[in-house]
């Protein structure tokens, strides 16, 4: 295994580290050697976790060796040798550590248990896996007791477990001491799943075994709420004195610090406390009188941990607190009233709840909750939820053991108490009031209150953590930018900082801001715009198009769950949802853990299904992993700002404004508000690129992302790749090309079982559900997988060599007899687009029915001196086939003569209009009768049919006739090759080009429609004749890039 020396410390790495990895590990070692805090940002995919583990444990190895050398020297080893060795080891471990200090423990924390499991698996890959490891988790994950593990309420599970442990009735816990030195437990690193598996096999408790292992562990893995929450820290016995604390995925540390120090309690919680105490009092009275206890019934016994006096005191306390809360003035319909943080002490003091009485109250509460939870004979079995909530309130408010006026002043600054009305969830109820009388209460007549005790300073919890004697704190994540604001909020110094670039190359990532949807509507998910049906439709069309060109997995992030649900409902009603799911099955992120796990499992199965073209996952939370084909693109649909009118958000902004005004430094409220959104976006961006060989597209579908001030808030590695697109077409074209290049230049994951090789050509997308709207000139493409082989090139050549037929000029068009005036239009359009203009064309590109339903009638045609009546009625496919064989020479001449103006360069607009100009004929939608006359106008005189025939035969009008014939043939050919929705998209794109001359959009659309199948390449190339001269050279280059690779 390669070894590299960094800052004097030899670090063994599973492979030769990259420069960004060396830089990262050097900074980690500097923090450890100097004993100072560090904040390190390194993008997801740069091997951050592996670097963090290797560098930290390499330094710990040196530190442990130094400690052993010192002990050996004291024991009487070779003085010179030991002195030299000690000096060398000291240089590696640093001088900031006391001479007599034992090696510290590494406390490695991350946000979730799954992230911790990933970290343990990374550790197993290294040579440091021999070190002693402990992973702390919850009983919910680790308990294997057959009864306790079935309990769904976590608080109840805790008390049930504690009671059995205390009574020594848990067989699994009793086995921990005897089996803690078992080789299967000690000889290798075990994550939570491993430990539970071994625990079941060896019949010991995994939860308490983990606590036993942490006693002498070198590195301890735990969720970081176990560190930031003083209650959890104490409950899990986490020792911080003299140790090193690492926060991986630390972008959420600020919020967790505030959450751990905050709490909310309701009037109904206090009422529930009164009810629970009253019921226990009643039960104790019944048991003391012996009214319900049989002589041989030992299941119900008098509780020994508390007495009636404790209950009377506790109930009096709750009644006084309820009275004090009810007396808080509040206006009906108001959002609430705000008080300083110290108001909470005043409120509790009215019920004689003070810091000095904290421990006594908590002790009684703990015993009472345990009784209610575990007493099998109690009619209120496993209750105590109200008492548990109140116990947490006491622990949060009186978190400091040494309560002082200085601390109270600090609380006054950092906290706010917000009192609001409680929503009624019941219409009525009855409870015990007073000391035994039953009082029926109509809850609807009594307005309850919600008391919110909110901490707005994350430094409050971080400073408390740093005061526990920690040697140094390391914060690291892929998204901490901007570091200055991050550190200012935590109010702890971080002398060592790093912003690493990404390990990937430019061709591995595409980043673009899409300002407008395919219909040209502005993409902006602001509060004023997000409910606009036009915006929701445009966003849906945008996602629909990207779902067709992004291979495999597509991740779509929404700013919030309500917005995601609103879009889902609207798209289901409009049919967009069905059209997306026709290409990729859609999965929506559930909000429960079990459902989420099932959804992710099924999503991965769809990704690996060779019969499908991937899947879509619509989500809000950012803690997801979509490596390789699980996520080839992420679409960010908007900026996830916190709800502006939420009282907590408003108070946070107000707190920051007051603090900045007072201290002259720090964030403003508006800066914090914007940073909340940008950090969430940065996290979502990091979901796609997960390792050095990964690749993907980052699609920002909100024009606010294009603002210069927002770009500075993105992670440093993203900024160089950013592009902004004001129109939709160029973005689609560039993404198609990006995935084509990635397929060629980058190593591909293992093929799906049974899936055809992706080296042949694009795959045909499935037909979408429903028809595209008229304006949806959007791409409808399969995942971009084009790597053209020699066989494919041969097919292209054959397709291009096919003979082009221009004879069926009017085969699927309706026209009417025109008068002379109508044929004098000057500057007529000689292109395909004249057949798409609503005022002049009866060819409807949105018509999706068969042309076999059209009835065409030709009136009298004069050829030479003879008259012929030709009547052709098409009733079926056979008739249509006969009709499309094309007109005879005389008929063609007559038709051509009608399209020649005085200048000889234009078709008459009336020849494309419906009879009587009453309405546009829809091809196949209704029967109509049109007439063609041999009369026409050239200048001021009439031109005979024979003259027209002569002109055509002599080639004078050859270009005009071929042009018109080309239009008809091309339309017929396109219609026959595309499905309904594809044809609608083609039509919209062509019309848009006629109006705006937007070359990029029309070419992007054509590429998606015709580059997927080599049989369609000829349709792509033939379109050149309908482009303006300025665009033809660029189009030929596009053909070479897209078709001739």
Automatic annotation (TrEMBL):
InterPro entries: ATP-dep_Helicase_C, DinG/Rad3-like, Helic_SF1/SF2_ATP-bd_DinG/Rad3, Helicase-like_DEXD_c2, Helicase_ATP-bd, P-loop_NTPase, RAD3-like_helicase_DEAD, Rad3/Chl1-like. One of its GO terms (biological process) is negative regulation of DNA recombination. One of its GO terms (molecular function) is metal ion binding. The keyword Metal-binding applies. CDD domains: DEAHc_FancJ (cd17970), SF2_C_XPD (cd18788). Residues 891-908, 914-926 have a biased composition (Polar residues). Pfam families: ARCH_RTEL1, DEAD_2, Helicase_C_2, HHD_RTEL1. Residues 7-305 form the Helicase ATP-binding domain. A probable ATP-dependent DNA helicase implicated in DNA repair and the maintenance of genomic stability. Acts as an anti-recombinase to counteract toxic recombination and limit crossover during meiosis. Regulates meiotic recombination and crossover homeostasis by physically dissociating strand invasion events and thereby promotes noncrossover repair by meiotic synthesis dependent strand annealing (SDSA) as well as disassembly of D loop recombination intermediates. This is Regulator of telomere elongation helicase 1 homolog.
